Every structure is written in C-alpha cells, then in structure tokens.
Amino acid sequence: MTDAHETAADRSLRTTGGAPPDDGGPSAAEAPIPLLEPREGIPPVIADETSLARVTAAFAAGSGPVAVDAERASGYRYGQRAYLVQLRRQGAGTALIDPVACPDLSALGEALSGAEWVLHAATQDLPCLRDIGMVPTRLFDTELAGRLAGFPRVGLGAMVEGVLGFVLEKGHSAVDWSTRPLPEPWLRYAALDVELLVDLRDALEKELDRQGKLDWARQEFDAIAAAPPPEPRKEPWRRTSGMHKVRRRRQLAAVREMWEARDRIAQRRDVSPGKVLSDAAIVEAATALPPNAHALAALNGFGHRMGRRTLEQWQAAIDRARALPESALPQPGQPVTGPPPPRAWADKDPVAAARLSAARAGVSALAEELNMPQENLITPDTVRRVCWEPPKPLDAESVAAALAGYGARPWQVEQVTPVLLAALSAHP
C-alpha cells in the first residue's frame, strides 16, 4: 500500500508525455494505452488477521470513494462465494484480500461504512460481499451509470477504454478463483480491475451531470444499496435448461428429483452442479424415464465413463419420481402471481393487449429520446402489471401511485407516467 494516488489523466501524461484523453475518451488518432501493471505493483494477498487489521486501518484513514470488486469461482465451485476481494482508495492504495483465509470482513466493512463504494455491476458482487460482512450504505455503479448515460457497451473493459482511453487485460475473468495459491498474472488482473474504477466513476458522474441524469443515477444507486437480500428462489429446479422439452408431470417430477440429488452432491463436494451432471442429461433422462440403470446408460450424458454406482444413484432419483402418487406430482407451470404471459393477452383480454402494445411503443420512444435502455427506464414487468390492471380512477396521480407501488423510483415515475397514462386512456 502507498499514500500516492494517480488519476487516469496523470497516468496518460506519464505514459505518453502528452495531454490526457478528454471525458469522451481517446480521439480517433490516439491509440488506447494498454494498462499492464498496477501503479504500486501487485500487492501481497492479505491472508491473516494481523495483515487484515493493518489494511482495515489504512482504508479507514484513506479519503474519497473506495473501489471494490470481488472474484467468484462460478462454474467451478458450489454457490457464489467470494474467493478474492479487491479494494483501492486514495491514501491506502490497492489491497487484495483472501476471504477464504479471512472469512469475516465485517470490521473492514464497518470501517468503510461512511464511504461511497464504487462497483461495476454492483448487484453481481453485493451478495457475496454481504456474506463476508461487507455491506455498503452508499454506492456508485459504473455499469449502471454507463447504461443511464447511453453507452452502447458497458462492460468494464469497454468503459475504461471508451471513457478513459486505457485497455484492461480481461483474459482471466473466467478462471477458477478458488485456486490456491493464486498465480501472479491473475493477481495482476485483479488489481488492475480496481486501478481506474474511481477515475471511471468521476468521468461518468460528469457525463451524467451534463446529460441531466445525475439525480436519476443517484436514485438508482440508493435503491440498490437499500435493497434487502434476495429471497431464495422457489422451485429452483424449474430453471433447468431445456425444460421446454419436458411435457408430462411425472417427467417434471424426474427433473425435480434429479436436480435435487445433483444439488446435494454438488454442495457436499463444493463443485459447480454442472460438473456433477449437465442440465441436458437431466432433461434427457426425465423425458425418457428409463426403467433401469442399463437403459439410463444408453442416454446422452450417461455414457461409459459413468460408473455403475453413479448410474444407480441417478436411476434411484428417476425411480422416486416413478413411485410418486399423482397428487405429489408437480404442476406443469409455476404459480402465476402477476399478469399472464403477453402472448396470451390477445385471447384473454384484447383491450389489455392493445394497452400493452401502445405502452410498449411509448416507452420505447421515450427510452430512445432519453438515450438509455428501455429496461432501465422502467421494468417490463411494471409496464405489464399496470396495463393488465389499470389504476382507478385513471389519472396521472393514480398511475404515478401504481408505478411507485411496483418499486419505480421517483425519476422513473415522473418520466413514464405521461406515457402510460396516454396508452391506458387510449384503450380504457
């Protein structure tokens, strides 16, 4: 760690000897500058309580926003836990923390509670950070800021290059971060991910302010920070890829039994469920409902590499589904709590279908005018719900109250209410 801090503009001056790129990124004549090394070098990985205490004190004494990132081992390990946490703050430099060796980072989280946390795609990292005691009270999401500002590509590498004029090496984003020790090239990549995050935040804040959207962005960031942890998904087995091929209730029961058996095995082994058995194999077996392990072995995904004992394990799950009484079989679809699928509206309620069509067209036009994705202007689910059951009386105040009731932020309510009111009034 070091007390020195260098902005992207400073780095550009030091690297090129010329002027820094402006807020809009490098000009066509300027080649983006490869960012190859962290300014202070690769910091040592923090893996003991004494070192963690020093880092906590240094970051508490730092100033300004703190860049935060986390690396998971998706596709390799069970769940979405963090295997590396990266931070950077003015006055503290960069820190790489091993949350396996230091699983409780609540003291660090508390030390940073008053600071603004800068994350890229915050909703992806916040759950695993929460699990180790790190919960922000204020944040700035550079990916969401890019969406609201109308950037066509909002990945971190694209944003750093387009806004700041630097190229990040992204070759290690999908590696197994549970590996120990972590290779030096991976650590370099991880450190560089937070190297320019605060600089990116500052440039995006200026751009949002220029477009008159800074307050909108702050409302979105506050909503993310205040959101409670997501509730566990009901019947997660229904998200098995290829479920559209499964038609009968007993086949659905076989998917459920095999999915749950796979999940138990994956959790026990701490491996990704897909490494235990693929979704395609589950669907193949569920649709075929083989009578025995020999027949199961003939199906795709259950070939000669699978041992007899493992085959019998999967066959047992299928046999459990076969033995269930009709009353215990799952229903074909998930319980519908909101409007029906839009494709069914024309038959169920043609007037509502016309409202939805008009509302979608209006939202699309407004999003284009505001230069942002439609889903960031207002969620499609909110539009569907308001169109399926319009508020009464049908006026601006009622529409605004309905939008707020579905979780729309004040800026969204202000922008979208006139559009939806017009669509609803045209098809009462």
From TrEMBL:
Coiled coil: none
BP GO annotations: nucleobase-containing compound metabolic process
Residue spans of biased composition, Basic and acidic residues class: 1-13
Domain of life: Bacteria
Alphabetical list of SMART domains matching this protein: 35EXOc, HRDC
Sequence ranges of Low complexity compositional bias: 17-32
Keywords: Exonuclease, Hydrolase, Nuclease
GO terms for MF: 3'-5' exonuclease activity; nucleic acid binding; nucleotide binding
Stored PROSITE patterns: HRDC
CDD domains to which the protein is assigned, alphabetical: RNaseD_exo
Ranges that cross the membrane: none
Keyword Nuclease belongs to the record: yes
InterPro entries reported in the protein's UniProt record: 3'-5'_exonuclease_dom (IPR002562), Exo_C (IPR041605), HRDC-like_sf (IPR010997), HRDC_dom (IPR002121), HRDC_dom_sf (IPR044876), RNase_D-like (IPR051086), RNaseH-like_sf (IPR012337), RNaseH_sf (IPR036397)
Region annotated Disordered, chain positions: 1-32
Record domain HRDC: where: 248-328
The protein, known as: 3'-5' exonuclease
Organism: Streptomyces cyaneogriseus subsp. noncyanogenus
Taxonomic classification: Bacteria, Bacillati, Actinomycetota, Actinomycetes, Kitasatosporales
